Every structure is written in structure tokens, then in C-alpha cells.
Amino acid sequence: MGLLKDDGFVYKLVNEVDLGPNSKEVYVHADVKAPRLTGRFAKMFVWFLELTIIGDVLLYFLKKNNRIQKLVSFAVLEDSPLYVPLHPYQDAEQEAKCLDSSLSAAQQVQEAKDCLETIPKHLTSDNTFRRWTIMDYSSAYGSGAITPYMVAQRLISAIMQSSDPGMDMSFFINYEAHDILKQATESTLRYEKGEPISVLDGVPIAIKDEIDCLPYPTTGGTKWMHKVRACKEDAACVKRLRSCGAILVGKTNMHELGAGTSGINPHYGTSRNPYDPKRICGGSSSGSAAVVCAGLCPVALGVDGGGSVRMPAALCGVVGLKPSFGRIPHSGVIPLNWTVGMVGILAGTVEDSLIVYAAMSGEAETSQPTVWFNDCSDDIRTCCLSALDNLHKCYGWQPEKFEYRKNWTPLFQNPGSANSHHMDKHNKSESGSDVRAAFSVYGAFNSGDYLNAQRIRNRQMKIHEKIFSMADVIVTPTVGVTAYEIKDDVQETGELDYINGAALIRYSIAGNFLGLPAVTVPVGYDKLGLPIGIQFIGKPWSEAMLIHIAYAMEALCKAEYRKPQVYYDLLAGN
């Protein structure tokens, strides 16, 4: 393809980039050009992609039409490559409590609980929809009003009901009633003795099926991963939750190999949005977002490799927290995109995200709207601007304008690169068409493309350092569109919808590419009543500040939160 080489974009030196309010830097819209494909058309497209010569030609024009060659492959820039987004650890933030690394997970949870008790509680009216929190479960257990065993029974009944053909919510890939009841029995006995391990004791928590959690296999949303990669022990993050007494209730559904943004899975069904079951939850942590939204668990774990926690959290109206790269141990997680992926938390409230974040943590001023901020639907833009205005009026946080130039920032790393040799050994028909297309597209990038992507990572790291020298956080919508409908033609092959995919991932990828912490908080609804989230992106290791801002944002919006169409009240039993 050397004869077809395009002129590459010439990037300025970072110190020449103007980020101020009068910047002439130009925002580059994604301008994705690809038809939506499902069924036999998706199969035909994949068949052509996997042909040696025809596939190479087709991939060349796909890259060309979507500006990847100009902005990345043939780009000219002087920055050196940066392969892993590790940041030097910084001292604790001002007024933030630093956890002692020698504390156990349960002790860290207690520290978080003590901090929460010093914060004024949100005031809501009796008519406001309110999700049960970890502290609600703990208080109910401690008072004897209900037991973990009773909650477990209700949970199992709710899972079975949601899985019936009439509902087909497809929240879980795997759960075992016997194991759930066994954990609940042990927790109930601890409460009867007055010896709960922590406030997480007896609290149901679901685990994305990308994270090892005994006694379940880890499928990664495939039909074959568990055959070649056995789950031999809990992942590090799961061990910490188990040591706190949490009831681990099963493995949630996900987009196959995390290789998509919709959550549509042709093998285990598509997790449906509890606010409107005809619509997607988003991906790839679709099931985890759905179970929290539907009230089955106050918290679930996901993995965020490109917005895979924050996107479904926003579409399902819950909180999604992606910590800094390296903050939570990654051992026991399928290494799909390990240089950008991070275990994250989906929770009903900011408070609950803090408690679980405290349990899992290892040793380890806002912006006015720019063109990037506005690159979303009108409902999302209006809702997020209104939320920011309320934040300013209530707390006096002063927005400043910085011009943010969006660059193509792909890692050019196959979504399952660390496991692609396993897929080659198996019949490719065991994977959905969307995943096979992703393997073909990402596998088409060469070493030069990869090096340039890492140079862009380094460049963006420096640009963000300049931004954070002038501002505390970057604020964006979490996604560019709200949840779209699940079409009938997706169940067999999955769906190739790169236009909606680009809109969903638009604001998320920078946090993964650069290892930055980020959190999404629900702030309202569009005209159809579908949730809208706002995202705060912080400098490295600034989780305490992000949680503080998210808590303030939640307090301003909580009175308007609405109950989903599909919702289970495990404490009240209805």
C-alpha cells in the first residue's frame, strides 16, 4: 500500500498549542463513515474482511475514509512513544484522607464510612425515587428488620423473573442460587452474633464476566474463553470485596470481549435498559449497569477500557467511577486491553462508589463548553449545561474555557490481543460478527501505526498536563447519544454500528488512553425519559476530589431522579 500513502497530519509542538479561550485550534469531528450491518450482511462483511487480499484492500479504504491514516498512520510528530499511562504518584490531595496501605480491605471500608458520617446527607422529599444504599442494607441487617438470607432469596427470585421469556432482561451470564444462599447464610450468622465484618457484609455485589470470581468460569462474553483460560481464584479486587463479607451474586452480561459499545451479545442475549427494555444498556459492562439500575445490587464491578463503565452507567442512570490507571490491582482480569483497561465501579449513589472504591484500592476548576462538549444530542447538551450552571450557582465553582482539540487516539490494540491466539485455534463462528470485524480491523494496524499511536498518547499526556495546570477538572457529557433501540435483527450476529458507537465512546477514550480517573453522575433525562450523565475527568490520583464533586452534583440532581420501568426493591420486598 506504499503507493497509496496519504499526506499525514503535521502536529505542532505541545508548547505551541494554544489552549486558551481565543484558541484557533480546530475541533476534528469523528465523521464516521460506515453503514449499520447485522445478519447476513454482517456475515458477508466479515467474510470479505478475513480474505487475505480483498480484506487488506477493504481495510485500507476503511482507515482512509475515517481519517485514521491522515491523523495517525502517516502523522508527523516529534513526541516519543509512551506505552503505558503510568503517572508518578502524588501526595494526597488537600483535605483528603490518605488510607494507610497496611490496612485490610474491611478497615479501609470503615475509614470511608467514618468520612461519610461527617458529610451532610442529601435531603429528598417523600415522593422522590431513592435507591437503597450500602448503609441502608447494613442498617437493616443490624436492626434485625431483615437478614442477608432473606435478601438473597428475594434477589434470586428477581433474577429468575427478569430472565423469563416475557422479560428476557439478560442481566447475568452465570449465577448459582446455592452459592448465593451459602454466602448469605454465613453473613446472617455473623449479624446474629453481632460480628459483621464491615458495612459491606451481606450486601449483594455483581461482577462483570471479565473478572475472575469463584465458583464461576470467566467467559468474557464469549462461548470459548473459559475453555482456554480457567478461573482458578478470585481476582484481587474480588478477594478484597469477599474479605469484607460482600455477597458475590454472579457474573454479569457484557459485550463479547469488550469489543463494542452497545452491550449486544449474540451468545447470552442483550442486557436491556431498565428505563426502557426496548433499548440498549451500553457496553461493554452492560449487565453490571443494568443490575444496579434495576435495584438488584447497590453496586457492581465493571472494567473500563474505553468508557465501558461510564457509558452504560450514563445510559442506565447510575454512577460510574473509573479510577486512575494502576489504582486498583488488575490481576485476575482478562487482559483484553490492559494498557487502557481499569476495574471500575457502577453504583446507585456516589456514596456507594466511594465505599467499594475504598475496599478495592491497592497501594497504589471546570471548563466552559467547547465544540467537543457540544458534540452530542441537543437533549444531552442542554441537560449537562443546566447541571453545570446549578453547580456554579450553588457552590461558586468558576468555569474557565479551554479549547480541547479532539484527536484520533486509538491504541491499535486488538480488543482481545492478549488472547487472539486462542481465538485462532477455535472455530471463528463461535464469536459474533462484530467481534470478528473488530479483530480484523484492529489487527490491520502495523508497528508504525502502533508507534504513532503511542506518540500521540505522550503528546496528549503533555497537553492534559497543561490543562490541569489551569483547571481542576475537565467536564463533558458522558456519551453523545442516549440509549438507542435494540433491533430484532441483532440477536444472531451482533451489530456493527460504528456511528452510534463513536457517539457513545466520544468522551470516554481520553481517560483510558491517558490513565486519568473519571466519574459519571446522572443529571437528568431526555424527552423520552432516558437517563443522561455528566462526566468529570481529573488529573492522576485525584479520585478524592472527583468523588467530592460528583457527590455535590448528585445532591443537586437527586430530587429529580426517576424510578426505572424494571425495578426490584430487595429491602421492602416489592
- What strand order characterises the main sheet? 1-3-2-6-8-7-10-11-9
* Number of strand elements: 11
Rg on CA atoms, Å: 23 Å
Helix content: 25-40%
Range of strand content? 5-15%
- Overall pLDDT level: 88
Question: What profile does the largest beta sheet have?
Answer: 9 strands, mixed
Task: Categorize the overall geometry.
Answer: globular
Amino- and carboxy-terminal Cα gap: 62 Å
What can you tell me about this protein's structure?
The structure is a single chain. This protein has 574 residues and is of the alpha+beta class. 36% of the residues lie in helices and 10% in strands. The strands form 2 sheets. Strands 1-3-2-6-8-7-10-11-9 form a 9-stranded mixed β-sheet, with helices on both faces. Strands 4-5 form a two-stranded antiparallel sheet. A hairpin with a 5-residue loop joins strand 10 and strand 11. The longest helix has 22 residues. The radius of gyration is 23 Å and the shape is globular. The N and C termini lie far apart (62 Å). The relative contact order is 0.17.
Which key phrases capture this entry?
alpha+beta, 11 strands, 36% helix, globular
Write the SSE topology.
Elements: H1 39-49, H2 52-65, H3 68-73, H4 105-116, H5 134-143, H6 148-163, E1 172-174, H7 177-192, E2 204-208, H8 225-228, H9 236-243, E3 247-252, E4 272-273, E5 276-280, H10 286-293, E6 299-304, H11 310-316, E7 319-322, E8 342-347, H12 350-360, H13 378-395, H14 420-425, H15 433-443, H16 447-468, E9 473-477, H17 498-505, H18 509-513, E10 518-525, E11 531-538, H19 543-557
Helix pairs in contact: 1-15, 4-12, 6-7, 12-19, 13-19
